[in-house]
Amino acid sequence: MFRKIVVVFLILTLLVSFKIPALASNSDVLNGKVIILDAGHGVETTNYFRGYDEQVAMLALAHKIKPLLEAHGATVHLTRSTPANVLLSTRVAMANIWSLYALRRAMVQNADGLDSISGELEEIDRLINVMVYVVIKPEDNASVYFNTPFSPTETIHPDLERIFELQSSSFIADNFLFVSLHSNATAIPIDTAAHGADIFHISNEHHSLTDYYFNYSHVERSIAFGEVLLDNIHETGIQRQTVSPANFFVLREHNLPAVLAENGHHTNAGDRAKLMDDEFLDKLALAYLDAIIAFFNDSNALQSFLSANLLNPSSAWTRHNFRISWSDFGSRFP
Ligand SMILES: [Zn+2]
């Protein structure tokens, strides 16, 4: 009996010592956090290169990250959960709907009575409906509410601007993250030597946005997350490249903390071999989990990065930023 207990004890000790601390164990460290994973492309728009299929690899990665986040208490939405194509407008409209729903729920939970916020709720419901129209009838509505490539006009639609204002709240800053997953390719002619991971974020300084919108609220948080994520990706063996501004559609048509990650170059043999390796994708998924936990919780790195850049008055990321706090909705919100 005693021997049996010793053996069991030894096995338990071994199991515990082989676990990666914080990552392997479940926790509620991401309770209340909402992460939108946008697996790039779909069968109709994917990039193939020498046996590699971007939409397959990125969907696999999304399906690996999702349960890791959920095991730590997060709510995870996938803009695409099968190989089928999902329009860019639908991906972004869904992100807007998910964030408005969460905001609405938080308002109801924090309100003294529903009467006192009926006006705000009515407005949020109207805006949710607007985004639902985009999902249901993109051919008629995507170009009305979103900028190019769907529309020649360069002015933001007032309803989308209203959504952006709601998304500027500290509730969104504290609880939301949008991550678009891709792999990179060099333009023709293919430069097979180019390799490594890059991260992109929206910027209020982007020249193409000056007539559209330049008041994105979560730029600095997005950049800080991108820096941490890129460090983590580097540790998996994919070379760290840069965190840079871009006005990609999936970053531009919402006002959520967001990055688009190019997880290496599939036109490079070394990066491609990694991205086609299921065990490597497991490692990469853990890199995401670790960065997302740091983003929402730990964030010594995040805080020092933010304060260093916020102290710099010429910082491109802070110049146009504003944020609606709960108090802007009235004293009902802590
Ligand atoms: Zn892509």
List keywords for this structure.
about 325 residues, alpha/beta, Aminopeptidase, six-stranded mixed beta sheet, two-stranded antiparallel ribbon, 12 helices, disordered C terminus, binds zinc ion
Instruction: Find the CATH superfamily of one domain.
Output: Zn-dependent exopeptidases
Report mean pLDDT, rounded to a whole number: 84
Question: What characterizes the major β-sheet?
Answer: 6 strands, mixed
Q: Which distinct ligands sit in these coordinates?
A: zinc ion
Give the CA-CA distance, first to last residue: 57 Å
Q: Can you tell me the residue ranges where pLDDT is under 50 for at least 5 consecutive residues?
A: 6-24, 310-334
What does this molecule look like?
The protein is an alpha/beta fold and 334 residues long. It has a domain at 27-85 and 173-323: Zn-dependent exopeptidases (Aminopeptidase), CATH 3.40.630. It is 48% helix and 13% strand. It has helices spanning 2-18, 54-70, 88-110, 118-136, 138-145, 158-167, 170-175, 219-236, 249-252, 269-275, 278-296, 300-310; strands at 34-39, 48-49, 52-53, 75-78, 176-184, 197-201, 240-245, 258-265. The strands form two sheets. Strands 4-1-5-8-6-7 form a six-stranded mixed sheet, sandwiched between helices. Strands 2-3 form a two-stranded antiparallel sheet. Helix 8 links the parallel strand 6 (197-201) and strand 7. The protein starts with a helix and ends in a 24-residue tail after the last helix. The relative contact order is 0.15. The model is unreliable at 6-24 and 310-334 (pLDDT under 50). The site of zinc ion has 4 residues, from loops.
